């Protein structure tokens, strides 16, 4: 079966209805493109990879990018069944885990491991998943504030999502008081920024969900100054630039910052950075006006 790269970039073809069997990367089998252990996927025969961090000429409907892998004579591997993966009732699952499996001591243990405040994890609605998963769960929200998926952070450090989840934003409670809203990459960076006293929301990765972020901002009474917090690597910076350009459609006050001499903001804040440190970094950053 030949592979049509142009056709694959169209959302109506490259979707959950595709007959391609996709496998999520893991700690033992990281992404062949970005070498990370979470969020990316690969075709079961390694013919192509969907990387959420490293751009390519072909962008997929989920915000990732298509990369060629190991070619096989048969091309992509069809699924035995072309039925859609059923969507979970993410709110019901999260409520059950909160009620029956989550204790304050669980959240405290995770806060110590990540170097963030337990209050920040609670504001992100973090819960302990059922015991067989050995993981914490962070709900992902759409722009209307509805839970659409669950991101799992396993005890061994691996990250996955609950089967049937949709991708969404990490939206904490109690934001809207600051003049700046920070947009982080990942739940742990979001928690670190909240721990430092900043208003912050998060995306699951450095790419995608631009329309969802715009939808969320458009539903605020007043759109604050937007500061995109990029990881200190090329994929993180490119993803931040793409998001910044997209957000210029709803606001002209967008800046991009990166943590000095650290891979991400959690590491920087864990090392002693304070709210004042972050504010100085923001004030030194120029307003984004698009790629020129």
Outline the structure in words.
The chain is α/β, with parallel strands linked by helices and 292 residues long. It folds into 2 domains: 8-84, no CATH class; 90-284, 3-Layer(aba) Sandwich (Dna Topoisomerase Vi A Subunit, Chain: A, domain 2), CATH 3.40.1360.10. 27% of the residues lie in helices and 18% in strands. The strands form 3 sheets. A 4-stranded antiparallel sheet has the order 1-2-3-4, with no helix packed on it. Strands 5-6-7-8 form a 4-stranded antiparallel sheet, sandwiched between helices. α5 (187-195) links the parallel β9 (180-185) and β10. α6 crosses α7 (234-247). The radius of gyration is 19 Å and the shape is globular. The N and C termini lie far apart (41 Å).
CATH topology of the largest domain: Dna Topoisomerase Vi A Subunit, Chain: A, domain 2
- The fraction of residues in strands falls at 15-25%
Structural class: alpha/beta
Low-confidence stretches: 1-18, 71-82
What's the total helix number? Answer: 9
Provide the domain count: 2
- Fraction of helical residues: 25-40%
Query: What is the topology, as strand order, of the major beta sheet?
Result: 1-2-3-4
Mean pLDDT: 85
Order of helices and strands: HEEEEHHHEEEEEHEHEHEHH
CATH architecture of the largest domain: 3-Layer(aba) Sandwich
C-alpha Rg (nearest Å): 19 Å
Identify the overall geometry. Answer: globular
- What is the CATH C-level name of the largest domain? Alpha Beta
Give the end-to-end Cα distance, rounded to a whole number of Å.
41 Å
Total number of beta strands: 12
Main sheet?
A: 4 strands, antiparallel
